[in-house]
Amino acid sequence: MTKKEKIVLAFSGGLDTSIILKWLQNEKNFEVVTFTADIGQGIEIQEARDKAKSFGIKEIFIEDLTNEFIEEYVFPMFRANTLYEGQYLLGTSIARPLIAKKQIQIAEKVGANFVSHGATGKGNDQIRFELAYYALNPKIKVIAPWREWSLKSRQDLIEYANNNDISFSKDKENEPPYSMDANILHTSYEGKFLEDPWIPPDESMFSRSVSPEVAPNEPVEIQIEFLNGDPIKIDNEKKSPTEIFQYLNDIGGKNGIGRLDLVENRFVGMKSRGVYETPGGSILLAARRAVESITLDKAAAHLKDEIMPRYAELIYNGFWFSPEREMLQAMIDKSQKNVNGVVRLKIYKGNVTILGRKSDSSLYSTEMATFEEDSVYDQKDAEGFIKLNALRLKLLKNIT
After folding, report:
1. Phi, psi (deg, nearest 5) at residue 381
2. Which residue from 17, 91, 289, 311 lies 20 to 30 Å from 370 (Cα-Cα)?
């Protein structure tokens, strides 16, 4: 009997990836190896293990990658104050390269020539996964079921599950659920009536934050300390990267921080409406910009802001392992050498307000900035500065 080829599947244990697992066994005759990444999504990982066992899977890999995810992916991204299209903190995008990297490592370990994912043929995730696969192993072969199988609707999936004894929650049978993605950085929601960009999200949908209207009436004040651009302490207490995000997510969620309703431009060309919750990340972004405001040189800060949209687009489009992203990262990381200090913030009803910032690396000079008498700045110097900058404007006026 011919030995079956192995394939490493990114497996969540949910209905879609369970159907994919069975389809790979039945229709493609693969020996499936499952990989489940714990990146702080807040679900019971043991359920994924039990589900894989129920399919007869012999090689099951589950890894807690939360700290690695934050240290090697989220923190480097945040050093650029990264926002896609000015708003999106890239919570889904930044997780895909790590999951893909681990899949490739497992494939090499078990001798698999194939990998698979559960992303659809309409979305960005198929691109992110597969660009990462090929960057890390150009010879790997990819099976993308949503681009191959004949299942076209939610009802098709339900029928396939029923025909193959795949258990699932019966509340998924009547109405399609939101398409959700979660990790320690964010939770995203798509689908159902969110596909109409005019209709607001239902309050019952949100899982990690309260509405600002019902948030506590008393503000919360915290201090975040940074070293080389990364947070290391909260309220003078040293915490691990995971502990920092857990703390900020808790504070932010309780106070209505980090909700976003966005129509974004997917890499494949279509527009898509998504709703996001990123409580801890929203607090961290505000704090980071505050500490950079006193520690980064003007030109360096402005250059960072100029390249940020390009850097964000690379991550959004799946080019984390590209040379251009790595080149930009080197420049961004260089800028963070002196981004050290403490920021004081007020968290209140959906708002993050900066109350203060201080740093031993501060470039802010009270003596230079004061409106009172000083001995370091000669105001007469401004006249020549203005005249030199006005010279080309005067010349233009002479020929108009």
Report:
1. -65, -25
2. 289
Non-local (6+) Cβ contacts of 236 within 8 A are 223, 225
What region, left, alpha or beta, does residue 353 occupy, with left being phi > 0 and alpha being psi -120 to 50 degrees?
Answer: beta
Residue 256's CATH number? 3.90.1260.10
Same domain, 338 and 196: yes
Average pLDDT, the chain: 94
Residue 193 has a CB neighbour count (10 Å cut-off) of 12
Tokens at residue 161, please? 């599950």
The total domain count for the chain is 2
Per-residue tokens: 193: 């009536």
Average pLDDT, stretch 95-124?
Answer: 97
Give yes or no: residues 222 and 326 share one domain.
yes
Q: Which domain holds residue 121?
A: 6-67+93-176
Q: Does residue 87 belong to any structural domain of this protein? A: no
> Catalytic residue numbers?
16, 96, 125, 179
Q: Are 46 and 172 within one domain?
A: yes
Q: Which two tokens stand for residue 342?
A: 């403490």
SS3 category, 364:
coil
Contact 117, 318 (CB under 8 A): no
Full DSSP string of 16-34? HHHHHHHHHHHTS--EEEE
Q: Is there a domain that residue 393 lies in?
A: no
Q: Are 260 and 278 in contact (CB under 8 A)?
A: yes
pTM, 2 dp: 0.93
Give pLDDT, residue 394.
Answer: 93
User: Is residue 350 situated within a structural domain?
Assistant: yes
383 in a domain, yes or no?
A: no
348 secondary structure, DSSP code = E
The reported pLDDT for the residue numbered 17 is 94
Taken as a whole, the chain contains a residue count of 400
146 pLDDT above the threshold of 90: yes
In this predicted structure, which of 19-33, 37-51, 167-181 has the lowest mean pLDDT?
167-181
Cβ-based burial of 288 (10 A; exposed 0-12, middle 13-18, buried ≥19):
buried
31 in helix, strand or coil? strand
Q: What is the mean pLDDT of residues 25-33?
A: 96
Largest CA distance in the chain: 91
Q: How far apart are CA 194 and CA 189, in angstroms?
A: 8
How many angstroms separate the CA atoms of 395 and 391, rounded? 6
